[in-house]
Amino acid sequence: MLPRKTRTRLDTATAQTRTARRLAKKARSRRRAAIAVIAATVAVMAAVLGVALPHLTGSSARLTASSQQFRTHLAAGRYGRSGSSSAPSTPTHLTASAVSAAKVALSWRENSDSGAVVHYRVYRNGTEIASTASTSYADSQVQPDTRYTYTVSATDAAGAVSEHSTPATVTTPTGSASPSGAASPSASDTPTTTTPTSATPSATPSASASSSSGVASPSGFPGASNSGYANAPGYTGTLSDCSTNIESNTTYRNCDFPDGLTIGSSSSHPTDVTFVGCRFASNSVVDADVADYGSNITFSYDTFEPNTVSASSEPTAPTAAAVSYNQGYEYGIDQRYSGALTVDDSDMWGFGDAIQFGYSSQSAPVTVSNTWIHNPRDNGGVDHTDGILENYGHLSYMVFNHNTITGNGNTNGLALQGPDYSHVTITNNYFSGYGYMVNTGGNSDSTDMTFTGNVWGTDIEPGWGPLYGNAMYTTPSLGGVWKDNTIYVAPGTSWMAKGNNGLYWWPTDGNPSSSSQIVGHTTDYSAG
Questions:
Q1: Between the CA of residue 442 and those of 355, 393, 435, 450, 453, what are the distances in Å?
Q2: What residue ranges in 21-167 does DSSP mark as E strands?
Q3: Which of 18, 292, 361, 409 could covalently link to 385 via disulfide, CB atoms 3.0 to 4.6 Å apart?
Q4: pLDDT (tens digit, 9 = 90+) per residue, 261-275?
């Protein structure tokens, strides 16, 4: 039964409707009849929404003013079913990471009511510094060795602003903004292009994955010191055996799952489950370390590794000897249901694919941030080995922000190999190695991809090149954005000239044809 106030409004509206109909019947012109019908319609809508309007049996001028008042208030979002305004929900999962001494990368989860959100406001130390329609932002107005606190709020079309998110605090490192501090030499802005022959390269690259020995990515990116369970907030040095019967609305902390984990089943989908500071280990050579049938599952500061290797023997150098094919696992996380998936601050190694997913949408997105994906298992001559894999296409609203993805894998570090992607954000990541470091779809049927602030690292030479398929960023009509991507020449690199360090990386660039070639650019890329 409707509430008393609503019934009263509807009774009033009914009476007004009857009056309007009598007016229409007696009207001397079509104009008065039309006015009366409009009056009835506005009255019913106003009654349901709880809007107080002047009596509608008066003149044309009064009706026009009344209906205009209704339209104005309705467009401004002032009337909901309860007759009160409603602000957007508060943004969640805000993370802040120091990319360098002069840049902080921020990312957060898209609002559940994102259809009503026009933009997000970003605040540093309580002061608004930016407004963006994206779910990530790079703050380049920071100083070295300084602590900053960030929050984010959401704003809708009517100007209503949500509460601030939970704060995220970060301290920038000491040093310069450039990874090595090297000055950029003069260079030709004519790109060198490598034309790929296949979106999924064969298991053995035509070029060897040569590299320097023991080098690592520049400071500020995810690595051994800031990812995985050992770096989880509140970790005491001990993990506990936990139940593998995963329940909804539960947070699991400091758990050890030495034989892997299945979350739910094909007919059961736990929701709102978070794993913090946990270890997932298995030897699932042709299966998953974690099979995820859940919805809104979050992995934070977790480690995914083989249970065939001592936990103290985790490789940290990009070129360390690979775990053998039979000692690793096929997937770190295999997403098997269309629920949201979030991975942050985690450590993943010894895999065939660290993350495989096949679902992502505006209401249930895939988000991977601040995660160290490194040292995959040997391919055994049978695997295509990737860092993150999506092979089906037709997905949207994926975010990959501030990750380290390095490896001797033979396919792609970030492998978006299907067709028809949209609203993909790839920001502030460190890539190195693989067949191609990055594949964002070699076709021209994807739209609205943002690729900014990423670094092409030289720890491991890509088998074919840094990027497979550049149509997204070279065809303006597709809505792709390529900006502020650079090259970092790691110490000891022999295949890339030191002169490329700090130069801009363009989507049309390929591997150098000689160790002395300058492939980078002194100016940023522009599709125009």
A1: 20, 12, 14, 15, 21
A2: 92-100, 103-109, 117-124, 127-132, 136-139, 147-156
A3: 409
A4: 999 999 999 999 999
Distance, C-alpha 251 to centroid of its chain: 22
Tell me the C-alpha to C-alpha distance, in Å, between residue 178 and each of 140, 168, 374, 494. 12, 24, 23, 20
pLDDT above 70 for 140: yes
Query: What confidence tens digit (pLDDT) does each residue in 447-471 have?
Result: 999 999 999 999 999 999 999 999 9
pTM score, two decimals? 0.65
**DSSP helix/strand/coil, 9:** helix
Q: Exposed/middle/buried for 233, CB within 10 Å: 0-12, 13-18, 19+?
A: exposed
Show the tokens assigned to 383.
Answer: 């695997």
Classify residue 343 as exposed, middle or buried by CB count within 10 Å of its CB (0-12, 13-18, 19+): buried
Measured N-to-C along each axis, helices 60-75 and 30-49 cross at an angle, to the nearest 10 degrees, of: 40
Q: Which single residue is written with the structure tokens 């030479």?
A: 461
Look at residue 246 and tell me whether its pLDDT is greater than 90. yes
Q: What is the DSSP string of 372-435?
A: EE--PPP-TTT---EEEEE-S---EEEEEES-EEEE--SSEEEEE-SS--EEEEEES-EEEESS
Per the listing, tokens 């800031």 go with 226
* pLDDT, mean of residues 501-505: 96
> What's the token pair of residue 225?
């010191």
Q: What is the pLDDT of residue 177?
A: 43
Percentage of the chain exceeding pLDDT 90: 56
Give the chain's mean pLDDT.
Answer: 80
Question: How far apart are alpha carbons 449 and 442 in whole angstroms?
Answer: 13
pLDDT at 255 over 90: yes
Query: Tokens for 385?
Result: 């080995």
Burial class of residue 388 in the structure, from the number of CB atoms within 10 Å of its CB (0-12 exposed, 13-18 middle, 19+ buried): buried
Average pLDDT over residues 351-371: 97
**Residue burial 149-185, b: 16+ Cβ < 10 Å; e: rest:** ebbbbbbbeeebebebbeebebebeebeebbeebebe
147 in Cβ contact with 170 (< 8 Å): yes
3-state secondary structure 425-484: EEECCEEEECCEEEECCCCCCCEEEEEECCEEECCECCCCEEEECCHHHHCHHHCCEEEC
pLDDT at residue 55, rounded to an integer: 41
Determine the Cα–Cα distance for residues 295 and 248; give it in Å rounded to an integer.
9
Which SS3 state, helix, strand or coil, does residue 128 take?
strand
Instruction: For residue 91, count other CB atoms closer than 10 A to its CB.
Output: 24
Residues 6+ apart with CB under 8 A from 455: 179, 217, 218, 221, 429, 430, 431, 485, 486, 487, 488, 505
pLDDT of residue 417: 94
The full length of the chain comes to: 528
For the record, the structure tokens of 518 come out as 């300058």
> Residue 49 — φ and ψ, nearest 5°?
-90, -5
The closest of 183, 207, 114, 196 to 154, measured between CA atoms, is 114
The whole-number pLDDT of residue 110 equals 72
* Model pLDDT for residues 24-60, shown as the tens digit of each residue: 444 444 555 444 545 555 454 444 444 444 443 444 4
